[in-house]
Amino acid sequence: MSRAMRCEVLAIGTELLLGQIVDTNSAWIGEQLALAGIDSYEHRVIGDNLDRIVAAIEDLLSRSDALIICGGLGPTQDDLTRDAIAAWMEVPLIRHDDLVEHIAKMFSARARDMPQNNLRQADVPEGAEAIPNPIGTAPGVRAPHRDKVIYAVPGVPYEMQKMISEQVLPDLLERAGGRAAIVSRSLKTWGASESGIAEMVAHRVDALEAAGNPTIAFLARGIEGLVVRITAKGASLAEAEALVEAEEVELRAILGDLVFGVDDETMEHAVLKALHARKLTLGIAESLTGGLIGARIVNVPGASDTFKGSLVTYATDVKRDLLDVVASSVVSEAAAKEMAGAARRLLDADVGIAATGVAGPTEQDGLAPGTVCFGIALPGGVVEGVTTRLPGDRERVRQFATISLLNLLRMRLDALP
Amino acid sequence: MSRAMRCEVLAIGTELLLGQIVDTNSAWIGEQLALAGIDSYEHRVIGDNLDRIVAAIEDLLSRSDALIICGGLGPTQDDLTRDAIAAWMEVPLIRHDDLVEHIAKMFSARARDMPQNNLRQADVPEGAEAIPNPIGTAPGVRAPHRDKVIYAVPGVPYEMQKMISEQVLPDLLERAGGRAAIVSRSLKTWGASESGIAEMVAHRVDALEAAGNPTIAFLARGIEGLVVRITAKGASLAEAEALVEAEEVELRAILGDLVFGVDDETMEHAVLKALHARKLTLGIAESLTGGLIGARIVNVPGASDTFKGSLVTYATDVKRDLLDVVASSVVSEAAAKEMAGAARRLLDADVGIAATGVAGPTEQDGLAPGTVCFGIALPGGVVEGVTTRLPGDRERVRQFATISLLNLLRMRLDALP
């Protein structure tokens, strides 16, 4: 980028001040700006009050090159972002016929009558332009004025994110005199610590440092693991994508099977993909997780091709009577292996997995909270048991047990001949 | 309150600007201020930069009576809230011996060495006072200066919330010349719309309006239902509590069994409490929910006294083979009733419940997404079936089905002789 650029974020809405909604948009926008190498020194939330919004715009732009305003683009009299931008530019609002048409079309596609109020969303300050919103009624606004610029985007997260990624960031980067396309890809890893991963890829980070493009960032995602994100800029989308892809090849060679997915792919996606590729069905037996493992699996549309069911045997007598567990302790590798085998047998599945353990808060049968045993029964009769000790409170132990077992299954499936 | 008071919120932390953490604290504080009748016109986030924090303090207090600063009270050189307040007051920081002692005690209680850096947390601007933090190392700061006041609280949500509720709000209310104690209680309801509830209690809202104390607010909580919150102020805690309790009696008489819990109680708490009181055990059979119902039940510590398990029969052949379902369609009231009976029988439980349905996104056996059937098998052999149509996408349908069935069970248990 040829010069450092600064862009602040202003969220609009009295409901945010009252705490009826948590503002997650500003954090997301802040993350995107940071990835693009644009500085952001301040996020601000202001209610639905025209004078205060205009004062905030003037104050923020007195120290900054650009401003992203989020929210206040709806159809009601409380939605004042368009009016505030017009006041800042000292121009009137102009109704755009093409926007009227787009909004009318969105309503008719949903077979709903369009309230007259919605026409307000077709108003754009004179000298500014609308940013198209293909998935909602509220267009955004791009308002250059003197040497500054305001981008107004809707408060609906999905609409906002699409508009920022596809329209706002490229425009900001171009204004900064840099390369206009930015692409990022997240390699999702599980099973290594942040410092471990950082050490493994340190020489790639060093190698990229001089050119500064692409860049590598590490993002901790709690029990969902650690994300290694590659971000590249280019004169075109194709150029940026090629840079990301080349670096992905380098990183995958280093990280190997620590990488379980890319971008929005979850651990349950990875597991179902691995099962599906081998035409294997899955049955589960759960104890401490209470059904969480099954619930994650059915998060994936189309899970029914592969997932037979889960036997949540919380009480000891149910483990004994329904699953025929004979191991003396129901929290043991032996019990977990029996449970996995029973899941495979009773649910008529190719693969059976099981988790039993102590979620806490108190110990059980002399075992500390966080003690968890997994069982995996694979086609051909191989049954494996694994014992682990997971950190955190009751809820965290259960979440950790769920993703740990799914990751173990993914690794075992990948290793099948 | 004798005069309108205005208090803004300033969150400190570069990690908030970078989107590594979402600022949920400001929304929570905003909600508490609104409940207490204190105006808040602006929330702001600033990074770990002394000049910018001081500038934000001065700007915010130029228009406001009070300011709550959240975060930046940690032990590192990046934690600048204490320094910024001292700069605003134009005073030095003074190290407090009693705070040094408290911090040393917190470390020794956790059997950890105290890094020298942590002594910075014992520094307080001259003329300001520390706010005790019984559950963490970072004390808060109360800094009155000229006719304004700053309260600094830790960024750790649990510590922050305790300090705001117990120390900051009473002090703010006293400064406003009003009554110093504030108490609120949330009655959690399920099964009626916001407008429906509002209509039912309209005469209570009207009756309270003149005095303005206590007040009633409605808070939508999505699939978790609707909260009716009573808030009262008093000269003492006991006075405020008495007002809340009297109003709770009035509202419960109107709302009846729509109320399933109070404050932090969840639907699964309510269900387990009802089962426990009647010494009944629970078994579940789930299909579309994939294990979510069981997973919610085991959220409650001590669930093992009551919860036997859940048979997640996702595949049709498992419903037939394991549960002996003979109904021609596995999404039908007949199937749900058979599943509930089988859960009761196979899990050796007193009560069996079941959910089967179409989560979507596509229809199944000619049934639209959102079609869900519930079964409830009670002691004595009574088995009931209910069909409903739930809104939303796949995930929402599953969540809705889970809480709908738990609520249905709660109502049936409450009606038992």
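qc> Chain B is about 40% helix and 25% strand.
qc> done
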